[in-house]
Each structure stands twice: as C-alpha cells, then as structure tokens.
Known about the structure:
Number of strands: 0
CATH topology of the largest domain: MetI-like fold
Distance between the termini: 31 Å
Amino acid sequence: MIRSLWLRNLFSNGVFRKSLIIIAVAVIWQIYAVILDNSLMFPTFLASAKGFVDVICSGELIIKTGASLKMLLIAYAIGIVLALTLTVLAISSRIGSDILEVATSMLNPLAPIALLPLAMLWFGIGQSSIIFVLVHAVVWAMTLNIYNGFTGVSATLRMVGKNYELSRLGFVFYILIPAAFGSILTGLKVSWAFGWRTLIAAELVFGVSSEGGGLGWFISEKKNQLDIDLVFAGLLMVIIIGVFVENIFFKTIEKRTVIKWGAKF
Length: 265
C-alpha cells in the first residue's frame, strides 16, 4: 500500500516522467549504435557524451555556443522592440492595421534563410547579416501574437484605462500588456524557437559570416573533419539549450505571471 502510494506520487512528478523518457532515448540510442557498429554513421551515446564533455572542458563548445546566443539575443531584443512598435501602430490607427496586415502577409511566409545571401550583400560578411535574418525570423510571429492578444482584451478593461485617463503608451503598458501577456508569452516562445532554428541553419550553411562561427558552424566543421561524435555533441547542445529555454526559462515566467494571475490553469 505504502509502496503503491509512493510510486503513484513519483510518477505524478513531471520531472521524473520526462527524465525516464530521456533515459529511455539514451538507452535505445546506445543499443542501436552498438548493433549498427558504424561510428562514422552513428556513434554510440557514450561516445557522443564523452565528446560532449571533452569539448565542454576544452571550452571550444562554450565559446561557440556563446557566440550563437549573443547574436540571437541581440536579434531577439530588436524583434521585441519592432513587434511592439508595429502592434502599437496597428491598434492606434486603421492605416497602421493595414500596414501590419500587408507586411505580415507578404513577409511572414518568406523563409528567413532565403534572405541570407541578400543580407550578406547588403551588410557584408559579418554578424550584421545573420542578425538581420534572425530579426526577420522572430519579429512576425511575435507581432501577430501580440496583436491578437491586444485585440482580445475585454471591453471592460479598456474602459478601465479610459476612466483612469491614461496616455496611449500608459494604456499599452498598464492595461494591454498585462491583460494580453498570455498571448505575448506565446509569441515570445514561438519566436525564440524560430530564431534558434534559423540561427543554427544559417551557421551550418554560411557559418563563416558570423566571424569565427557559432554552434552551427561547430557542427559543420566537425562533420567535415569526420568527428561525428562531436557533431552529435553539438546537436546535443542545441537540444539542451532548447529544453532549458522552453521548460525552465519560459515556464518560470509563465508560473510567475499568467498562472499566478489566474489567466491560465
């Protein structure tokens, strides 16, 4: 009875369940690689884990990852400012709404990586070209989610803002943003995922443009050197950062905002 209750409580823990899934994937990976017996095609999990630890200890993977994250954070910050600006214009006037609708319908479907050759012509071979592409990757999903959140704010809350005679910016920051923060947070998460994928893809193909290369360039280099275990180590770092940002960083923000405020259950 006590053991059954203990097991039920254990399996009700989300972290424990997800850890079991990760362990199962690692075991299947190891077994399949051993059966395949071709380290050039598919190294074992243990070999990849050892390579991961080695490049972490040497500092190489940390430096490459830091270079990638620096560019993405710069583009992300620019994207947030642009998204808020476009959204405020869209909710302030009919022409602003028309501009946002036309811009998103034209540019949102355009694959960010397709703009990189043009960006390299316009901004040269450097970080600026990749940051330009990353801004394009993050801004439209962010803008659409913020706009949908703002337009979904109830008439009651809008009347509260009018009763307090808030300025236009005050109305945005004190009424619209808190009320629409669930949609804003979704836009931030989706935009981060878009930007992260675009960054790795851009560096895999045009890594030299990032002045020394980041995580994607690290993966490309190790592939050319046939260090496939280190290729998997680089991919593992991509996954770890993705899991951390989604399940720890954004989850923490969500718990302290929309869940705490009762906007999500």
